[in-house]
Amino acid sequence: MNVFAVIGHWSFSPVKGLMKKWQFTYDAEKNVYVCPGKQELKYSTTNRDGYREYKSNPSHCKTCPLLETCTRSQNTQKVITRHVWEDSKEWVRLNRLSRSGKYLYRLRYQTIERSFADAKELHGLRYCRFRGKEKVREQALMTAAAQNIKKIALHLAKKAK
Q1: Chain mean position to CA 5
Q2: d(Cα 136, Cα 16) in Å, to the nearest integer?
Q3: N vs C: which end of the chain shows fewer Cβ within 10 Å?
Q4: What is the DSSP letter of 24?
Q5: Which residue range or ranges hold the Transposase DDE domain (predicted)?
Q6: Cβ atoms within 10 A of the Cβ of 4, count?
Q7: In 1-80, where does DSSP find H-type helix?
Q8: DSSP 141-152
Q9: pTM (2 decimals)?
Q10: Residue-wise pLDDT tens digits, 6-37
Q11: CA separation for the pair 32, 41 (Å, rounded)
């Protein structure tokens, strides 16, 4: 569909002092991660959240000099998770870091954030009037419809002039 996706990101603080996921190399051909100590973390399973788990061999990790900076698990086994859509996530991340992606992301506050702010301030989405998922969804859809009708009216008014 030739879509140039730019999505914001959030970061969390992993355990301090431990190696981060990006310090491990992913080998797509073998479907393994390779640690800085040149040991392979092989695919183990896919969990219910859609993450593939790659686990190291605990017997190799016990004698590794990097163990203290790698994992704190009792069984000396490093586990790395990789989402099943990680390739797409990486593509979107590269888009965000590109020159055109940075430009588009700067426009976000003028378009997307402004729409949310208007819904909150002018259309009563600061608090939900009803209880339950269906009724709240209905309120949000009615608010979006009202915002769209206002945009159409403004567009037609400008066109008429």
Answers
A1: 12
A2: 40
A3: N
A4: S
A5: 34-152
A6: 10
A7: 58-62, 67-70
A8: HHHHHHHHHHHH
A9: 0.63
A10: 877 777 767 788 888 889 999 999 999 999 98
A11: 6
